[in-house]
Design brief:
With about 350 residues, the protein is α+β, with helices and mostly antiparallel strands. About 45% of the residues lie in helices and about 15% in strands. It is built from ten helices and ten strands. The strands form two sheets. Strands 1, 4, 5, 6, 7, 8 and 9 form a seven-stranded antiparallel sheet that branches. Strands 3-2-10 form a three-stranded antiparallel sheet. A hairpin with a 5-residue loop joins strand 7 and strand 8. Helix 6 runs antiparallel to helix 10 and helix 7 runs antiparallel to helix 10. The protein is globular.
Length: about 350
């Protein structure tokens, strides 16, 4: 079989590759949707990002696991490190990846993306990153890979085998020299036999946590003191943009567009969730609630686009405008979430 491509769907969340990679696989299958809409409700962000000079992250929160490793019930996962892969010659490594794809495994390979010619980091400093392989063409000597391209658009592209070998060899040297840790390579195969029924209790618990700015997810395995949750994240997003406007020297690796992109994806997922719940009889129809979340999603997308355009023009005045715009989200959202929570608690789910 000289050409083979595993199925992929455009992922509903792309802000971080851990979501894009896993969801582009599971979204091929309708039976995964009850799990998807039971999840992706809570949000977290970094708490001490200024005083401890930590990079600020704003993202979906599912209990602090490694999202690439054994946290999606519809993915059978195998993980290996470079120590285990070091026995392969370059041509053997390509053959190994081709063989796994042919067996139905998506390969999430830890590589140095600065060696990928079509990548945004090409030719620069070393850039450790995960790259998803989902297909191959032996005649063209290429892999089908999913990644952010030079314009930071997430899509599936082709890269030569030689680029892949170069990126793996560079990563191996970086790990052996102690310049970076090994974040492992993962292999996923879809697990269609996993049963998952919609869980209204889990949804209600997450909505309450969001409203109360707390979390009860997986607390036996980590300490959440360094993070902020739910509605309280707006305060820290506002703090981030004030620091960006005032050019705080302790603001590390600023990336405001990504934060607003995740804000948009969260509101979009909430609107999609309400639509799905109503269509499947989980909650009663509430067009006003759906329309309100769609409006929030549209406003968040507009903020993201405005910031991206301003940054391309070098106009930093926009940072100072963001806290007031985010205040409108913070004031409007609690009543909408309480309304959704009331629907979930009083509904009689009919199954999906």
């Amino acid at each position: 079989m000289s050409r083979y491509q595993l199925p992929l769907q455009p992922p509903p969340i792309k802000g971080f590759l851990r979501w894009a990679y896993t969801l582009s696989i599971t979204h091929n299958y309708a039976e995964t949707l009850p799990w998807y809409y039971t999840n992706f409700i809570q949000i977290s962000c970094t708490k001490h990002f200024l005083e401890k000079r930590q990079q600020f992250f704003f993202d979906f929160f599912r209990g602090k696991p490694n999202e690439l490793n054994f946290n999606n019930p519809f993915l059978l996962t195998c993980a290996v490190n470079y120590e285990l892969l070091s026995g392969f010659r370059p041509d053997e490594l390509v053959e190994f990846m081709v063989g796994r794809i042919r067996q139905g495994y998506y390969a999430i390979v830890f590589i140095d993306e600065s060696k990928i010619t079509i990548g945004p980091a090409y030719g620069g400093d070393a850039f450790p990153h995960h790259l998803m392989l989902s297909g191959y063409d032996l005649k063209e000597q290429t892999f089908d890979v999913s990644m952010f391209d030079g314009h930071l658009v997430y899509r599936t592209l082709k890269i030569p085998f030689e680029d892949f070998i170069s990126a793996c060899e560079s990563m191996k040297r970086l790990i052996e020299s102690g310049l970076t840790a090994d974040h492992h390579t993962f292999f996923y195969r879809f697990n269609g036999e996993h049963p998952f029924a919609f869980d209204p209790v889990a949804v209600a618990d997450q909505l309450r946590d969001y409203l109360n700015s707390e979390t009860h997810l997986n607390r036996i395995n980590y300490n959440p003191d360094g993070e902020v949750f739910g509605l309280a994240t707006y305060e820290y997003l506002q703090m981030y943009f004030r620091a960006a406007a005032e050019q705080y020297p302790s603001l590390v690796s600023p990336n405001g567009v990504r934060h607003l992109h995740l804000l948009w994806e969260h509101k979009k997922v909430m609107a999609d969730r309400i639509r799905y719940f109503a269509q499947h009889g989980i909650i009663e129809q509430d067009e006003e609630l759906l329309r309100s979340f769609e409006e929030l999603a549209n406003k968040a997308k507009l903020l993201r686009d405005q910031l991206a355009i301003a940054e391309t023009k070098g106009d930093e005045r926009i940072f100072a405008k963001m806290p007031a715009k985010l205040e409108a989200f913070k004031e409007r959202e609690p009543a909408l979430l309480e309304r959704l929570l009331k629907h979930v608690e009083s509904g009689q789910p009919v199954g999906t």
